[in-house]
Amino acid sequence: MSSANQINRRVTLSLQQRLDVIQKLKNGVRDTVLANEYGVKTVTIRRIKRDEPRIRQLSQTSTRKLCNRQRIRKPLQDGLEGRLYSWFLQRRALGDRISNMLLQEKARELHEEFGGPSSFKASNGWLWRFKNRHDINFCDIHGESADSMTAEDFSRNFLRRLVEEDIQLQNVYNMDETGLLWKVLPLRTLFHDSERKVCENKIKNDRITVGVCANATGTHKLPPLLIYKFEKPRALKHCQSTLPVVFKTQGKAWMNPDVFADWLENHFKPAVRKQQVESGNRGKVLLLLDNCAAHKVPSEQQTDDVEIIFLPTSMTSALQPMNQGIISKVKRSFRHRMLRKVLDYPRGVVEFYADYDIKDCIDLVSDSWIDVSQIHIRGSWTKLLGNQKTEQEEEEEEEEEGHSCHISDINAIAETMGIITGETVPKEEVQEWLSTCDAAEFDLDDFEDNEEDCIKEGRHPEVEETDRLFAGLILWSLTQPEFVQLQVQVLKDYYDQGYK
Question: Measured between alpha carbons, how far is 410 from 11 in angstroms, rounded to an integer?
Fold first, then answer.
């Protein structure tokens, strides 16, 4: 490719590349030489030179994720975020415990004090992006920092135990669960007000829990665990015993001790024993979990051949393998597959919602778990296993594979959204949609103290079927006169207000 073509093509430099440009300018490299080297215009090089103070300030508190980010946009509420972050650091220095709700309340207080757009609400999505921009982890919010030296000590002790007890990596497993909003589509794909109202209801109400589990070598992936709020949905009437997932029910679609104990005893242990027989790989099995109330099991379920190891709370986010891109990959694949499913319906999203049910969701979850490759899983154990490689020839390649996989997923989702809408969809818009979903699911994930009910008496699985019937009614009304559409919409609104 010629240098002229490179300059005409839009190129955006990452934060790390901008730091490199600044250093080269200080070393005497000319603007035009750097412009050719990075495939940008000379005015871009001059702008980087002018913005040096801001770029260096960003780099001082940035993780590698932010350093590799290409777009470095100021937040819309830049002044407010600066004040809020300063307040956060002061309170943390005093040892205060800071919750998500407290951050949002302080943000609203600062907004009222210093002014700003009336549309600012300190929403869950905004909070998620604020924490992401300032590298605030969930564990940081609760006053627990994932200290790197402590993590290194844990990893070193863990590896020492594997060697001393001759525990093979094939017998080391990790399981983690996450919330999943299983009906949410991007607003851009929704053409009618009725569709938007449907989607708004889904983002509030339709959530399942998905658990994934695999061993450290990626050679054994267990079927996903899927927790749904209704015990006998009509969509599963004739196939509940042959599902590609472990299907469990709980009144709020959450993990609790009963669901976990059942999964451990009746699914995890038999699956591991079968894998050991088939592979000829005997020995003790370790199952790593985050330390939450839902994962507590009676002592009689702690056997000599299967031992549960809880990751210390302060290190869970830093070390838990399934949190190192695996769950994110499953969610991206799920959302892309759901968008592709919309393409199967000539009438678009309304027709899709009229047909889409929990059985379709289960199939999408299963297929999305299949999309996670062995190399993805091996790479997710890198932080926990330290310098030890699960396969001698791979370490850096796995990390690069994970990054390119993320970019590839974003590109694929943008392309599918473009086919649905007939418009070019910016990748930033896709990332915004994924981030909004993650933020909503993240807030719902903090349910460790809510273990009370399994399936409460009075819950009706027919609600799901009624939703689909209304979606079908709306689909039919679109072919009718306007007054019919209005009557159908009024009926649907009445149902939403009275029964949601």
Answer: 18
How much is the pLDDT for 201? 52
CA distance linking residue 13 with residue 226, whole number of Å: 41
Dihedral angle, C-alpha 259, 260, 262, 267, nearest 10 °: 120
The long-range contacts involving 485-492, CB below 8 angstroms and separated by at least 24 positions, are 489/193, 489/194, 492/194, 492/197
Region 365-384 average pLDDT: 94
- Residue 67 reports pLDDT greater than 90: no
Hey, what's the torsion of the CAs at 227, 231, 237, 241, to 10 degrees? Answer: 60
In this predicted model, what pLDDT tens digit does every residue of 244-303 receive, in sequence order? 999 999 988 989 999 999 999 999 999 999 999 999 888 999 999 998 888 988 776 677
> By the 8 A CB rule, do 124 and 438 touch?
no
Strand order, beta sheet including 225-228: 246-249, 225-228, 207-215, 172-181, 285-290, 306-311
Alpha carbon distance 314, 147 (integer Å): 7
Percent of the chain that is helix, strand, coil (3-state, to 5):
60, 10, 30
Query: Which SS3 state, helix, strand or coil, does residue 309 take?
Result: strand
Q: Which two tokens stand for residue 262?
A: 């059942």
User: Whole-structure pTM over 0.70, yes or no?
Assistant: no
457-467: burial string, b at 16+ Cβ within 10 Å, e else:
eeeebeebeeb
Position 126 confidence tier, pLDDT thresholds 50, 70, 90: confident
CA distance 424 to 349: 18
User: Residue 355: how many CA atoms within 13 Å on its side-chain side?
Assistant: 14
Please tell me the distance from the alpha carbon of residue 274 to that of residue 286, in angstroms, as a whole number: 16
Question: Taking a C-beta distance cutoff of 8 angstroms, is the pair 260, 282 a contact?
Answer: no
pLDDT digits (tens, 9 = 90+) for 293-337: 889 887 766 777 899 998 887 677 778 999 998 999 999 999 999
C-alpha to C-alpha distance for 89 and 141, rounded to whole angstroms: 11
Write down how long the chain is.
500
Torsion of CA 265, 266, 269, 270, to 10 degrees: 150
CA 264 from centre of chain: 24
Decide the pairing of beta strands 225-228 and 207-215. antiparallel
In eight-state DSSP terms, residue 211 is E
Amino acid at position 457, single letter:
E
Place of tokens 């709306």: 474
Q: Which of 101, 450, 440 is nearest to 253 (CA)?
A: 450
Separation CA 274–CA 173 (nearest Å) = 15
